[in-house]
């Protein structure tokens, strides 16, 4: 198990912003957490989805300059390597991502660069050639801060 981003206890000061590059790995045998070094995630409010192959698909978010991004990256939790694999059809932060039975990831909702809630969905995967963009404007209302189950 990995914990990505947030404010670790060692820097839990009200005036300190979250650190998106901070991560910890949980050891279920020892029941302990340890820092995961070398992570280069720079955005916040992204989705992180554990794939069937053990990699983590990171989509969207807000970069360090405050711009909403459409980047899709693949994280190898064993090496902390982060590889850009493509992009979403719509830049979004605060979206939700759901792993589908076939291994693809459904990314829905969120907020765009203008602060508007999105009523769109898309399916992304690794490798990116299997990606499919879908429009779901009539399927659900504009929303953010929700979970797709």
Continuous helix count: 0
**For this structure, what is the CATH homologous superfamily?**
Kelch-type beta propeller
In round numbers, the mean pLDDT is 77
> Structural class given helices, strands, pairing?
mainly beta
The largest sheet, given as strand count, sense and whether it forms a barrel, is: 4 strands, antiparallel
Binned, the helix content reads under 10%
Number of domains: 1
At CATH level 3, the topology is: Neuraminidase
Taking pLDDT < 50 over at least 5 consecutive residues as the criterion, the unreliable ranges are 129-139
Number of strands: 11
Strand content: 25-35%
CATH classification, class level: Mainly Beta
What strand line-up does the widest sheet have? 4-5-6-7
Q: Secondary-structure element sequence?
A: EEEEEEEEEEE
What is the fold's blueprint, element by element?
Elements: E1 2-4, E2 23-27, E3 32-35, E4 47-50, E5 56-59, E6 71-76, E7 81-87, E8 96-99, E9 105-108, E10 121-124, E11 132-134
Antiparallel strand pairs: 1-2, 2-3, 4-5, 5-6, 6-7, 8-9, 9-10, 10-11
Give an overview in words.
The chain is mainly β. It is 0% helix and 32% strand. It has strands at residues 2-4, 23-27, 32-35, 47-50, 56-59, 71-76, 81-87, 96-99, 105-108, 121-124, 132-134. The two termini are 20 Å apart. Residues 129-139 have low confidence and may be disordered.
């Amino acid at each position: 198990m990995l914990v990505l981003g947030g404010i670790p206890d060692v820097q839990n000061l009200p005036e300190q912003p979250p650190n998106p590059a901070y991560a910890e790995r949980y050891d279920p045998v020892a029941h302990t957490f340890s820092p995961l070094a070398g992570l280069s995630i720079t955005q916040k409010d992204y989705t992180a989805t554990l794939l069937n192959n053990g990699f983590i698909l990171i989509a969207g978010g807000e970069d360090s300059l405050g711009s909403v991004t459409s980047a899709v990256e693949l994280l190898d939790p064993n090496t902390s390597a982060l590889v850009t694999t493509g992009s979403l059809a719509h830049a979004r932060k605060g979206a939700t991502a759901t792993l589908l039975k076939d291994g693809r990831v459904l990314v829905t909702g969120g907020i765009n660069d203008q602060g508007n809630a999105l009523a769109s969905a898309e399916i992304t995967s690794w490798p990116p050639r299997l990606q499919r963009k879908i429009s779901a404007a009539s399927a659900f209302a504009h929303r953010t801060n929700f979970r797709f189950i």
